[in-house]
Design brief:
- By secondary structure, this protein is an alpha+beta fold.
- Among the domains are: about 200 residues, no CATH class; about 130 residues.
- The chain is about 50% helix and about 25% strand.
- The protein contains nine helices and twelve strands.
- Strands 1-5-6-11-10 form a five-stranded mixed beta barrel. Strands 2, 3, 4, 8 and 9 form a five-stranded antiparallel sheet that branches.
- It is flat.
Length: about 475
């Protein structure tokens, strides 16, 4: 490596001497300066490019992740859309609106004029006056509570701690001393060199506000239900008041700007060399292109890696969605027959009770006063007691709960099948869209068929509750 570097720097010096025979170029200063500036610029450009591909990876994630219904949330990474709800919402500090999260900040403006002493090119001591100004934070706070995300199918608990929260701006105002807001919501103590202006801002997630959420679901500790919470293994935990399209566009813009800015950094490094060493102008053109070529190569490699990994993630998500369908079908096959057995036992018990009541009633009606046999008054008293208890023995509520459970089970299966078809559609689309299709062919990715009603092999559980 040292031999190659020495040869590269020596070639630069030789070309510089050939190009500028009347200019003395230091072989110990100029080549090292060119190499250092180019290397530093290339390294910074690569860091910016990595940040851009990180944003592109997030964009792939939200674009390839279909939106789930709350009632169809299973364990794993999910994307949800709904409204923020809470049993005991917060009240924000500045806006005083009901919310589930808020953060406020009070900033005070300052201005300072100072005299700076320096020496000119002749060594004489001189001075100049400059004015600086800015905003300094004098008060801030933030609060959040667990809340529920609600859509048209139900609610799910969300624990926002650890999430990237993008709240909405609910309050923004500037005021001067004399305004009730200045000291009413701000501290009594100010900052040095204050101009008497303060800026009040507050962001929050208001109650009933539409939310876009991406996070990992797990089972709750208190009840059998899912919850969205922070997870170290989750690739993204986002709670945003923006829409899915706005979030996706934001990630795409960050990726494009990072790619462009990385190239600008390399260009600035080349202009720095040209500015510091005008005699290296031709070397700027001749030996600047390898760094551009290296940056383009790094971009191509990064695109291949990010795109291939996103295709693998979509394929694994599709396989997990299919296993979710299978789990729901097994749940139906196991749960429904057991419920049927319980209802059959309840019906048998209720039939026996009603037969006993009917027999007792017939005995009471057949017995006449004054004749030997069962006491009609006692029979009627027992009948009255049994009749009053009979409504508790009726299986109407049990059958109603069974019907609700059966309907809920079928809805869960339908949601799981719909989720699989959406993930499969995203996957198949990625395999057919250019240029992802080229990489898909190279990686051996195959189109996967959707679940259709006519080729869905698993039949529903047969239910027969007849006597």
């Amino acid at each position: 490596m040292q031999i190659l570097l020495s040869g590269y720097l020596g070639q630069i010096h030789f070309d510089a001497m050939q190009t500028h025979p009347n200019v003395r170029v230091s072989s110990s200063v100029l080549p090292e300066t060119i190499w250092t500036a180019n290397l530093l610029g290339f390294f910074v450009a690569l860091m910016i490019l990595c940040f851009g591909f990180y944003k592109r990876r997030k964009k792939h994630l939200i674009d390839d992740l279909p939106t789930s219904k709350v009632d169809g949330v299973f364990i794993g990474l999910v994307e949800l859309k709904g409204t923020a709800e809470a049993e005991r919402p917060l009240t924000s500090y500045l806006k005083a609106c009901r919310c589930v999260q808020y953060e406020w900040k009070v900033e005070e403006h300052w201005r300072k004029t100072e005299t700076v002493y320096y020496r000119d090119k002749d060594g004489k001591r001189r001075s100049r006056t400059r004015t600086r100004s800015g905003w300094r934070t004098v008060g801030q706070d933030a609060r959040m509570i667990p809340f529920y995300l609600k859509d048209d199918t139900g609610v799910i608990l969300v624990l926002p701690r650890g999430a990237k929260i993008e709240p909405a701006m609910v309050f923004s105002r500037q005021c001067r001393k004399g305004d009730p807001l200045y000291y009413g919501k701000g501290p009594r103590r100010g900052v040095p060199n204050s101009t008497g202006r303060r800026r009040f801002t507050e962001q929050a997630i208001p109650l009933h506000h539409p939310l876009y959420l991406v996070g990992k679901a797990r089972e709750r500790d208190d009840v059998v239900a899912p919850v969205i919470a922070a997870n170290p293994e989750a690739r993204l935990f986002l709670i945003s008041t923006r829409s899915e399209d706005q979030v996706s566009v934001g990630f795409a813009a960050a990726y494009v700007l990072s790619s462009i800015f990385g190239g600008v950094i390399i260009l600035l490094a080349q202009f720095f060399i040209w500015h510091e060493h005008p005699q290296a102008g031709e070397m700027f053109v001749r030996y600047g292109w390898p760094w551009w070529l290296g940056y383009v190569f790094a971009w191509i490699v990064g695109w291949f890696v990010v795109t291939f990994n996103s295709l693998v993630c979509v394929r694994q998500r599709m396989l997990r969605a299919w296993s979710t369908v299978d789990v729901q079908l097994k749940r139906r096959a196991t749960l429904i027959p057991r419920l049927v057995e319980i209802l059959q036992g309840l019906k048998t018990h209720e039939r026996a009770v009603h037969e006993a009541v009917a027999h007792l009633r017939s005995q009471a009606e057949a017995t006449e006063p004054g004749k030997s046999g069962p006491d009609p008054v006692g029979c009627r008293a027992q009948l009255r007691m049994v009749v009053e208890a009979c409504p508790e023995l009726k299986s109407d509520r049990a059958f109603s709960k069974f019907q609700n459970e059966l309907s809920h089970t079928e809805e869960r299966i339908a949601l799981a099948r719909s989720y699989f078809n959406e993930v499969c559609t995203f996957y198949n689309t990625r395999l057919e869209v250019w240029p992802d299709s080229l990489l898909a062919k190279m990686g051996g990715f195959q189109i996967h068929p959707l679940i259709r009603a006519e080729n869905f092999e698993r039949a529903a559980v047969k239910i027969d509750l007849a006597d």
